[in-house]
Amino acid sequence: MRLSMRLWPRSLMGQMLLAVAVVLLLAQAISAGLLWRAAEARREAAVMNAAAFSLVVRSQPREERGDRRPRAMERGDAERWVRALRIERVPAFAPLPGDVEDADRTATLRSLVESHGMVVDDMIVVERPLARDPYVDGRPRLRARLLRSNGPDRRLVVAALRQPGEDHWVVARVPLPSPQRGVLGSILVQTLVIYALLVGLHFLLLRRITGPLAALTTRTEKFARTQNADGQLEPRGPHDVRRLISAHNAMEARIAALLDEKDVMLGAIGHDLKTPLAALRVRIESVEDESERQKMAAGIEDITRSLDDILSLARVGRASEPPERVDLAALTAAVVEEFEDMGDPVTLGPTVRTALPVYITWLRRGLRNLIANAVRYGGEAEVSLLREGERVILRVDDRGPGIAPDRIADMLEPFTRGEASRNRATGGAGLGLTLARAIAEQHDGELVLANREEGGLRGEIRLPTG
């Protein structure tokens, strides 16, 4: 199954060309079979006509022969074969050991002979190797000439006829001609010409269709990464493909406009909310009760962080700058060092030096969220950078209680917390893992959460290297 999948082309052009080639090959194989059967039928008819010509014409006295010949018989090969082997008259005829009697040939030859007024009392038609025929074997010069011109493997059709009232048999011998090799050669040449014309024409037609589709695919992938409507494709190709490109351009423009409107709206919301929060933060300084003041400040900071997470989640994927190639090992070590400087129990595990083009600010944010989540709910975090096949893995392990298996998928949804104890008192609005997942998907990767066998939760940002 895997081998067949590897051999099957993945592109539309490859599949269409392969389908045309296979259908053409089957059609040519059927045509070759029919032509071969027709050639064999003509070959058999020539042998039967030659035998009938010998029996009807050559077996009669010379003065009675005239130009009598079976109507289906043409001069040429048949007469050349007959001149090589004269008619033999024998008192009795019986097949030799090893001869193959042919009832179909007997019936055909009888019909040909009787259609020309010759009455048949008995007839036997056999096939034998040319070298084993007694008539040929008793004539060394004839045998040498026939073997030289026909080859040692050539076979003879021997036809013996007896007419009513005759006490002798008339025996005719016709060498079987070799199969026509020219048929296969002509079919091969015909196939090559048809392949060159038909497959070449299909290639040009499919390229006119698949070229714009390939460009549209590339454009769609680029728009999915950047959400930037600049550089849209010019409609080209067949009418249907041009309509598809035009519709895609219109959809891109509409999506980009909606995203721009969303950014403007979110910016306005952020500004309108942060301004009164900042004013409120100033006003609480006048509260004399230190405990109440700290609670108010913590609440304001919590709202501010939640607002930042919401705005970040809305902006992820709308990077204004192209990705930069960076050493992920150095980036990982720098993020771990930030937590160490704040006194958090975060350690750096094994890393491999790997350089990839990434959105540095966003990837750093996603890794921070995973580490912060591990420290908050697991008490400590170990960060490592691994490479498995065609993927690079940013792994964060903690030693906390983990997550119930049936809730792991829910933890990646916005505003979801793992358990009742994970409330605002512990910090966060349930957007950290959602934002980390969005950042991983922005890099064509994925975020995977799993419980460790030794206890704790493992979070991985898996990025493709290709």
From TrEMBL:
Keywords: ATP-binding, Cell inner membrane, Cell membrane, Coiled coil, Kinase, Membrane, Nucleotide-binding, Phosphoprotein, Transferase, Transmembrane, Transmembrane helix, Two-component regulatory system. Its main location: membrane. Residues 268-466 form the Histidine kinase domain. The chain crosses the membrane at residues 183-206. It is an enzyme of class 2 (transferase). GO terms for cellular component: plasma membrane. Residues 241-297 form a coiled coil. It is found in: Cell inner membrane. GO terms for molecular function: ATP binding; phosphorelay sensor kinase activity. Residues 207-260 form the HAMP domain. Pfam families: HATPase_c (PF02518). It is a multi-pass membrane protein. Its EC number is 2.7.13.3. It comes from the Bacteria. It catalyses: ATP + protein L-histidine = ADP + protein N-phospho-L-histidine. CDD domains: HisKA (cd00082). This is histidine kinase.
